[in-house]
Write a sequence for this structure.
């Protein structure tokens, strides 16, 4: 049967993600669905043929329900095939027809259960909830449908995050399900859920039940690994588990799974507190990785976490780098890994700045003879290191050529052959010749740098020699100086990096102070390592007692020592601020925090009031007032949470009052000054738009745009927002990303923010491979209007669009015309 062939093919090719809770049902990913299209299409065509030829109708040509008892199964089978093709709308329509036409038969309830499955898969969980609520208390339901109903309810709760209910309904499902491989999958999910909630003994039991129910080979392997990592048996059983894992390393059957086996052994070593073996097995897991990039990433992640815990932050950061190289972008928790890696990257950068600047300052402060001697030593060391590396490379080539035999020098005869028949020796000779003589043409007197002059060319040669001008000499001298500065065997190469002037030395010292403060702040705020943080701050104060961060660092140390209950050091910095700097904001924050908070709140309200007024002027296109307000904000309220927003408004106002070049320059400053703020993306998209269109307001084609009804291979969803609402977009895009992860993870959606014109911003969600998928997404958001609750009702609209029509829309900038087309033909 074609349908069963398609399901078998899907089960054989589909790879579950065991790093997350398994889904109750297996469906084709977007990159897998094409593989089962032929089988499912064939099944659908056979069903259609059956329906056309064997449906019995009345005089009005309406089907007589169940006159042919096989027709109803054709509708059900077509719907199932379309569901596995990811054609959800077609599947739901067919199931809806079957549940209505055959409502007096058991088929009605079976079709409704499949409808709930389809709604679950397309993300319309509110629709499936209605069906589930109707069915789960329906006493007319046949017992043969209980297994699928219970599993479908579990599937619903898994998609909505109701993990306790998932467990409840799967426990019911395993009692009525007849197929052992299916039971095994349910038990595995129950094991994952128990492990997730910390019930390791229960998880161990469920994984054991998985293995007893004849799971598919892949699931059998994973259940063995997961159970082993729990290490929950007695001493004798635990040793047996370890022996089983070690045995699994020997046969070639698990050659591509050795990385997982080593990882499981590493977890066991960690539970046994055998740290050296834990690290060893994790490294073996990484080296054994062949096809499982996710497992490789998780092994690296464990190494990163271990080094982080022992405060080896530089090494930890390197392991985080390796983790993210292999980790899929859809991995749950990837964002937190990226954030930790970025914090460590910043920390490592600041620590390296301190080390580097201290070293160049030390060299710069040497006497000239000592400095020259030191640099000469570096040059000599580098020359020797390069020569040793070159010799090692040549020796390796000779050894390889001689079949692995070692030799101290290249022989004239190798393997009984003449010297020049030995390719390695020949290449070595060519290299040595070129090093000594350079690239020479094969001719008489090749050794001479100045060959005898042919009498016929005397005049030309003298003319050439006398034509070298002073300017040419100057160019040669400048080139020589530049070459010296780039030659690592020349003293100038090292001198150019040293702070040998007062200005350069001050810049170097300031960079060290900044690095000390930033390193201490990262330790405190992001890594929560108060010992390291206080150490950096204390070192900074000892080396640079008078610095621009002094009062702030006093207060930071007061906070840190209060957190770690070091009363002596806390009181020291408290008294220092209160006695020597009683008028500072930090002294006020310690002595009267309520008053300080009141002052801060008053200031915040003033900033907010000014920002609101600025936005009103902006919306009224009073750009001169916008500029005045932004200037006032810069003068009175430096470095507050609204500073990036004022900068962006100022840039837009400049664009409307000072021309295109000034506009571009102002937007560029925003992207440079606020790289982590959401305004950076807005400014960059405006810059991209302006660089494509030289005029601020692009010319609009006066001709009517004709949009196409033809199907396309790529579809997009668009949120079109008035520019005045652009400051609200960061929250909405974050909510959309969260929704995509939870509900539309299979589509691997990404978004861009693009300006359609100078007045409207687009959030472009891409991409969908069928109009049905894009329509599903549009309808899902229509059913969740709270997603856009922060936007004014008349300031936005959303729609889906084919890639071909999107090009027309972007070219002509006529959103209203497309919306008319969309409402008339697509909704």
């Amino acid at each position: 049967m074609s349908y069963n062939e398609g399901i078998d093919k899907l089960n054989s090719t589909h790879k579950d993600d065991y790093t997350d809770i398994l889904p109750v049902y297996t469906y084709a990913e977007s990159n897998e669905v094409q593989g089962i299209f032929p089988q499912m299409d064939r099944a659908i065509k056979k069903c259609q043929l059956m329906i056309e030829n064997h449906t019995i109708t009345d005089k009005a040509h309406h089907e007589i329900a169940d006159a042919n008892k096989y027709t109803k199964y054709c509708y059900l089978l077509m719907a199932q095939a379309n569901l596995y093709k990811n054609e959800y709308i077609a599947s739901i329509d067919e199931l809806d027809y079957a549940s209505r036409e055959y409502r007096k038969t058991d088929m009605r309830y079976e079709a409704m259960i499949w409808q709930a499955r389809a709604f679950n898969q397309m993300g319309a969980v509110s629709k499936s909830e209605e069906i589930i609520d109707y069915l789960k208390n329906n006493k007319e339901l046949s017992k043969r449908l209980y297994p699928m109903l219970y599993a479908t309810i579990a599937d619903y709760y898994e998609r909505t995050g109701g993990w306790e209910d998932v467990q409840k309904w799967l426990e019911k499902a395993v009692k009525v399900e007849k197929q052992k491989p299916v039971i095994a999958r349910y038990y595995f999910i129950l094991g994952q859920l128990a492990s997730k909630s910390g019930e390791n003994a229960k998880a161990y039991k469920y994984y054991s039940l998985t293995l007893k129910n004849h799971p598919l080979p892949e699931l059998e392997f994973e259940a063995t690994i997961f159970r082993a990592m729990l290490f929950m048996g007695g001493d004798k059983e635990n040793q047996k588990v370890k022996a089983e894992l070690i045995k699994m390393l020997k046969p070639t059957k698990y050659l591509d799974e050795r990385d997982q086996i080593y990882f499981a052994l590493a977890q066991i070593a960690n539970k046994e507190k055998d740290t050296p073996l834990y690290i060893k097995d994790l490294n073996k897991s990484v080296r054994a990785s062949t096809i499982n990039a996710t497992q490789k990433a998780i092994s690296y992640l464990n190494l990163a976490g271990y080094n982080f815990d022992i405060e080896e932050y530089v090494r930890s950061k390197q392991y985080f780098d390796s983790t993210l190289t292999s980790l899929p972008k859809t991995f749950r928790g990837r964002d937190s890994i990226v954030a930790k890696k970025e914090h460590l990257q910043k920390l490592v950068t600041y620590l390296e700045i301190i080390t580097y600047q201290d070293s160049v300052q030390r060299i710069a402060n040497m006497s000239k003879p000592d400095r020259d001697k030191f640099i000469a030593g570096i040059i000599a060391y580098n020359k020797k290191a390069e020569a040793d590396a070159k010799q090692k490379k040549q020796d390796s080539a000779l050894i390889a050529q001689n079949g692995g035999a070692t030799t101290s020098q290249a022989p004239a005869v190798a393997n009984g052959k003449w010297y020049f028949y030995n390719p390695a020796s020949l290449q070595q000779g060519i290299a040595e010749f070129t090093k000594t003589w350079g690239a020479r043409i094969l001719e008489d007197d090749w050794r001479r740098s100045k060959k005898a002059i042919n009498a016929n060319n005397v005049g030309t040669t003298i003319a050439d020699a006398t034509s070298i001008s002073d300017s040419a000499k100057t160019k040669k001298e400048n080139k020589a100086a530049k070459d010296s500065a780039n030659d690592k065997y020349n003293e100038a190469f090292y001198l150019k990096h040293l702070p040998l002037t007062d200005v350069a030395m001050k810049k170097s010292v300031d960079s060290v102070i900044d690095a000390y403060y930033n390193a201490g702040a990262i330790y405190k705020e992001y890594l929560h390592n108060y010992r390291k943080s206080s150490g950096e701050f204390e070192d900074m104060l000892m080396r640079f007692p008078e610095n621009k961060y002094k009062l702030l660092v006093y207060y930071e140390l007061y906070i840190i020592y209060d957190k770690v209950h070091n009363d002596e050091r806390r009181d020291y910095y408290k008294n220092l601020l209160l006695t020597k700097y009683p008028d500072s904001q930090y002294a006020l924050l310690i002595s009267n925090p309520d008053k300080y908070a009141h002052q801060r709140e008053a200031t915040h309200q003033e900033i907010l009031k000014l920002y609101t007024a600025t936005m009103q002027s902006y919306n009224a296109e009073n750009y001169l007032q916008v500029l005045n307000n932004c200037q006032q904000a810069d003068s009175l309220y430096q470095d507050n949470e609204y500073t990036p927003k004022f900068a962006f408004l100022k840039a837009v106002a400049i664009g409307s009052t000072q021309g295109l070049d000034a506009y571009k320059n102002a937007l560029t400053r925003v992207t440079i000054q606020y790289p982590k703020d959401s305004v950076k993306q807005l400014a960059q998209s405006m810059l991209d738009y302006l660089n494509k269109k030289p005029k601020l307001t692009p010319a609009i084609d006066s001709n009517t745009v004709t949009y196409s009804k033809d199907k396309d291979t790529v579809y997009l969803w668009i949120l079109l927002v008035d520019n005045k609402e652009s400051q609200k977009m960061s929250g909405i895009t974050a909510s959309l990303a969260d929704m995509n992860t939870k509900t539309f993870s299979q589509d691997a959606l990404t978004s861009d923010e693009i300006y359609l014109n100078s007045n409207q911003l687009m959030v472009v969600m891409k991409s969908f491979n069928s109009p049905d998928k894009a329509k599903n997404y549009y309808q899902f958001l229509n059913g969740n209007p709270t997603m856009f609750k922060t936007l004014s009702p008349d300031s936005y609209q959303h729609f889906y669009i084919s890639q071909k029509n999107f090009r027309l829309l972007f070219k002509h900038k006529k959103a209203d015309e497309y919306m008319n087309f969309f409402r008339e033909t697509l909704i």
About this structure: DSSP finds 36 helices and four strands in the chain.
